[in-house]
Amino acid sequence: MGWLQDETGLEKTAANHVALTPLSHFNRAAALFPDKIAIVDGARRFTYAEYHARASQLASALDRAGVASGDVVATILPNILAQAEAHWGVPATGAVLNTINTRLDVDTIAYIFGHGGAKIALVDSAFLGLAEAALERMEGKAPRIIEVADPASGIPASGRHTEYEDFIAHADPDFAWVMPQDEWESLALNYTSGTTGRPKGVVYSHRGAYLHTLGLSLDWGLNRDTVYLTIVPLFHCNNWVHTWAIPAVGGAVVCCRDITARAIYDAIADEGVTNFGGAPIVLNMIVNAKDEDRRDFGHIVNVYTAGAPPPAATLAAIEPLGFTVTQMYGLTETYGHVVECIWQEDWADLPDDERFARKARTGVAQVMEEHVTVMDGETMHEVPADGETIGEIMVRGNVVMKGYLKNPEATEEAFRGGYFHTGDIAFKHPDGYIKITDRAKDIIISGGENVSSVEVEGALMHHPAVSLCAVVAKPDDKWGEVPCAFVELKEGASASEDELIAFARERLAGFKTPKRIVFTELPKTSTGKIQKFELRKLVKEM
Fold first, then answer.
1. Residue among 364, 423, 352, 415 nearest 392 (CA)
2. With contact defined as beta carbons under 8 Å apart, do 104 and 131 qualify?
3. Nearest Cα residue to 105 out of 86, 129, 122
4. Span 236-244, average pLDDT
5. Looking at the domain assignment, is residue 266 inside a domain?
6. From CA 109, how far away is CA 96, in angstroms rounded?
7. Is 476 inside any structural domain?
8. Which residues partner with 202 through β-bridges?
9. pLDDT level of residue 195 (50, 70, 90 thresholds)
10. How many domains does the chain have?
11. Strand order in the sheet with 186-191
12. Do 292 and 259 form a contact (C-beta atoms < 8 A)?
C-alpha cells in the first residue's frame, strides 16, 4: 500500500470536485455552439444561445415568483418548447421538476399536486380545464397556474392565467443558474402510473441524470450531427433523460406535439431526424402508415424502443423502411432504460427469423448501470443462465432512483437485499442476455404451467392481419387460467377467431394457445403501453 495510506492534502476542493449535473451540459453547449440550432418547435427554431437565454428567463421568472431551492414546479405539457425549457429553467433555480402525465384523471392530478407540493404549474391551454378541476379537488395549498398557449397548433390562450411568453418576457436572460452543491440533490419528481392505489413519487438526483446522459451518449453514439425527435413524452422518465443528453454532444432536439406517422415522417424528411425513442406501438404506427403519410429520406434512423418487448415480426417489418431498432428496458425508477440489446456482429449472418428473434431480446446492462441480473426474489440468488429458469430482474447502480417521496417503507422494500426489485419476470440466455417474459402480475398459470403473455403475443403478431395484441389470463374452471387475446386488426384487414387460434397453435404448445380471441381497439397509455389492467376488467365481465 505504501504512500496510499497517507492522503494528507488530497482532499476534495473546488478545483477538483464539482457536483455532477446535466445543467453543466447546457452551459457548455451555449458557450461552445452559440450559433448552432439547438431546438426546433414547429416553425420556431432557436440556437443554443437563444435556447439557453430563454431557459434562463424562465428560471429568472420563477425566482421572481418566489420559487426557491427545493421547491417543486409542475408541468402539464406535451412535447413542446416550454416543456423542454422547463427541464433546464426549473432546476436552474434549484427547484425540482415534476412533469405530470397529461392523460391522468382529475383526482390523480389533484393528489400529485398536493403530495408533491407544487408551487407553480406550467399548463398547456389544451389541458387547462383538467388542471383547474384538479385544483378544486386539492387538499392544501394549490399551485399558481402559468398557462402555455400554442397558437400555431390552434390552441390559443384562455386569458384566465398569466401566459408563459408574458411570464418570461421581461425576465433576465443572464440569470445566474443555481448549480447543486451536492450532486445527490433532487432534480426531478416523476409519479409512477400505478394501476392500483395512489401513484408513487420517484425522485431523481442530479448525479443519476448526469451519468445517464453520458451513458446514453456513449451507447447510442450521439454526436454534434444528432437530430433527436421527442416522441417519448417529456413527462415519462423525463423523456428517458434524452433531452438532457443532447446538449452534451451539441446535437439538436425537434419537438413533436402530436405523435402521428405523418409527423414522424415529416420530421425525418424535413429536419433530418437521426434518432428517436418510442414504444413498440410507435414502430407499429410507422410500419402501417398510409402511403400519403410517408416521406422519402436518404439516411438510416436509429430508434430505441422500450415499454414492452417488441415482437420480432415488427422488427422485421420496420428495418427495410430505413430504421435500425434497438430494444431497451427500464422503469421510471431507473431514469428510463438501463438494459440494451447490444448488437453482436456474428448475428448478422443468421437467418432472418433468428436474427430478429435475437434483436427482440431484452439485453444486457448499459454502461451507466453497475449490475443487472435475474434473481430469485426471495433468496436473492441469481438464476442459472439456461434460457428457461425464470426470476425477477434486479438492478443495482448509479441510475437507480433516490427512492419514493414520503414513502420510506416502499423504498426499503424496493431496495431489499441491495438491489432494486423491478417486479419484471425474465430468464437469462447462456450468453447473459436477459429476456423478459412478463410482469409478475401478467404471468398466466394454466394447469400449473407458466404461460408468458409476451410469448403468445409474439406468435400472434406474425399474422399478417394483426396490428396489435395483448394477452391476459381468463379464469377457467378446468385449468384455473387460460390465455385470452385481445386483438387490434390492421386497417382493411380481416381475420376470424378460429383462424387466429389455429395460427397460434401452429407456433405454440397447446396450453399456451389462446382459448379466446376478442377483436377490439386496445386501451393504451399516453406512452403507447397497452393497459392490461383494463383488459383484465373486460375479462371479468365476460
1. 423
2. no
3. 129
4. 95
5. no
6. 17
7. yes
8. 190, 404
9. very low
10. 1
11. 144-148, 118-124, 72-76, 96-99, 186-191, 201-205, 403-404
12. no
Cell matching residue 128:
387547462
**Alpha-carbon torsion (303, 307, 311, 313), positive or negative:** negative
Q: What single-letter DSSP state applies at residue 311? A: P
Cell numbers for 498: 378460429
- Reading the block at residue 447, the C-alpha cell is 394447469
How far apart (Å, rounded) are the C-alpha atoms in residues 517 and 484? 6
Cell matching residue 400: 437507480
Q: How far apart are alpha carbons 475 and 370 in whole angstroms?
A: 41
Q: What is the DSSP letter of 297?
A: -
What is the spatial distance between Cα 468 and Cα 84, in angstroms, rounded to a whole number? 31
Question: Phi/psi of residue 367, each to 5°?
Answer: -65, -25
Q: Tell me whether residue 248 is in a domain.
A: no
Query: Would you state the pLDDT for residue 526?
Result: 63
> Which set of grid coordinates corresponds to residue 258?
402530436
Mean pLDDT of 61-88: 98
Question: Rounded to the nearest 10 degrees, what angle do helices 261-271 and 280-287 cross at?
Answer: 80
CB 253 within 8 A of CB 213: no
What is the tally of helices (H) and strands (E) in the chain? 17, 25
What CATH number is attached to the domain comprising 513? 3.30.300.30
Between CA 53 and CA 173 the distance in angstroms is 5
Answer yes or no: are the C-beta atoms of 480 and 447 closer than 8 Å: yes
SS3 assignment, position 355 = helix
List the end-to-end C-alpha distance of the chain, in Å, as a whole number.
71
Looking at residue 284, what is its pLDDT?
A: 86
Longest dimension (CA), the chain: 78
Domain that holds residue 466: 443-541
Is the confidence at residue 439, as pLDDT, over 80?
A: no
Q: How confident is the model at residue 311 (pLDDT cuts 50, 70, 90)?
A: confident
Q: Cα–Cα distance between 50 and 28 in angstroms, integer?
A: 14
Amino acid symbol at 112: I
The enclosing H or E element of 144 equals strand 144-148
* pLDDT bucket at 82, cuts 50 / 70 / 90: very high
- Phi then psi for residue 193, to 5 deg, are -95, 65
Rounded CA-CA distance 308/530 in Å is 9
Amino acid identity for residue 472 in this structure: V
- How does strand 369-375 pair with strand 391-397? antiparallel
Contact status, residue 359 vs residue 305, Cβ threshold 8 Å: no
Report d(CA 124, CA 145) in Å as an integer: 10
Whether residue 127 is contained in a domain is answered as no
Q: How many CB atoms lie within 10 A of CB 238?
A: 26
Residue with cell 389470463: 473
Give yes or no for a contact between 223 and 229, defined as CB atoms under 8 angstroms apart. no
Instruction: Kindly report the backbone phi and psi dihedral angles of residue 423, in degrees, each rounded to the nearest multiple of 5, phi listed first.
Output: 80, 5
